Amino acid sequence: MVAVHKRQITNKHRFIGFALIALVVYILSNIVDEWRSFQGATVAVYVVAIASIILLTGYSGQISLGHGALLAVGAYSAAIAQINFKLPLLLCFVVAVIATSLFGALLGAAAARLSGPYLAGTTLALAVGLPSIANQFSILGGEQGISFDVGWPPMSFGAEFTQYKWFFWIATLAALISMWWVQNILRSRYGRTWRAVKTNEVAAELSGINIGRSKVLAFTVSSGIAGLAGALLAMTTNNVSPSVFPLALSFSLATGAVLSGVNTLGGVIIGSVALVAIPEIASLVADRWSGSESVATLLPDLIVSALLILTVFLAPKGPIEKLRSRHSK
């Protein structure tokens, strides 16, 4: 009874926290300009994408360096569903999640026997080869890609409700729902099973856990979430093409997961904001100190690398876990 009561209190606190975040987002969307609304939508997209990596790597122990490819699968699925079947926006997102989950299940089944650098290399190869694969099918639009147009916001929202604000609302709502769902599944028996497999596969197997099935399920769930992030990213760019999902995107998401703390969802917003803020900071620094276009191009990667190294050395489990460990002392 005590455990159930504590769980109910925790769920209540989480619901209040999510409601407060939604309220803050609503207030911000009425204050910020178009560019900040676009950045806010991008942050929300990264929240969903990084959460999918944390679920896969932080909780089930499977390393992925090619999550950008899974985002691409979701984006292409949503765009094809809209273009060929004229599905409404919500169903396009559902198609993206289902299609990417199925793709992830196949990939997870093939990679279930792999671990460590072998699994990371397999997912990396997928991210490298995806642009070439996309160029082979006319239905995917080649280098130019295909469009994913979510349309203008409802007229009932008023003439001042812009499209970027519409993106901001949709992406944020999707991020809040995704985080709520991910937190609940990680607290369920599935999450406990994944943590057991990550901690000690032999002990987990001796306790009756099917290791292969558990890994495939984790890969499937993570892929579905990544597919949703891909559809959201396609929404903000209004385009689905190989250039939107380069190899650099996979590395950026992996870096964002490390900055967030790959073992906890608590810091996911930190990594997401960092990925959006770093290019702007780099541009300001380059304009102020050099004015060189090459410096502005290279500086974001340098800042990301420096932050990654500092995080690994100073807070390997992430800043949130670092703060928690200090409070517990």
Automatic annotation (TrEMBL):
| Record's subcellular location | Cell membrane
Q: Where are the transmembrane segments?
A: 15-32, 38-56, 63-81, 87-112, 124-146, 166-186, 216-237, 298-316
Keywords, comma-separated and alphabetical? Cell membrane, Membrane, Transmembrane, Transmembrane helix
List GO molecular-function terms, semicolon-separated: branched-chain amino acid transmembrane transporter activity
Signal peptide segment = none
Membrane topology is: Multi-pass membrane protein
An example Gene Ontology CC term for this record: plasma membrane
Task: Please state the protein's primary subcellular location.
Answer: membrane
Name used for this protein in its record:
Unannotated protein
Q: What is the lineage of its organism?
A: unclassified sequences, metagenomes, ecological metagenomes
